[in-house]
Amino acid sequence: MMTIEENLVGRFGPLMPLAGLADILNRSPEAVRMYLRSNGEFAQQINMAKLKIGRRLYFRTTEVARLLDGGSSLQN
């Protein structure tokens, strides 16, 4: 059985685009973008995995997987 991390890395690679994060959270990309501006604990932890390349927004897949798997904090 595949772990969440293996599944997400296989699907997105090492960096997950904003649309991919929105897809796994079952939200629109704009709703995720607005949520990430909030002060919620989950939003802050997801923002720690954020990486901006040019104008595009990506998230470190392994860190997102750890958070979704119940991890309370992400590593930098």
Helix content: 40-55%
Q: How much of the sequence is in beta strands?
A: 15-25%
Structurally, the number of domains stands at: 1
Strand order of the largest sheet: 1-3-2
Largest sheet: 3 strands, antiparallel
Number of helices: 5
- Give, in order, the helices and strands: HEHHHEEH
Distance from first to last alpha carbon: 28 Å
Task: Tell me, briefly, the overall form.
Answer: globular
Characterise the protein shown here.
Helices cover 53% and strands 16% of the residues. Helix 2 crosses helix 3. The chain starts with a helix and ends in an 8-residue tail after the last helix. It has 76 residues and is of the alpha+beta class. Strands 1-3-2 form a 3-stranded antiparallel sheet. The model has no long low-confidence stretch (mean pLDDT 91). The protein has one domain (4-68). The protein is globular. A hairpin with a 2-residue loop joins strand 2 and strand 3 (56-60). It contains 5 helices and 3 strands. The longest helix is centred in the first third of the chain and has 9 residues, at 4-12.
Key descriptive features of the protein:
single chain, 76 residues, 16% strand
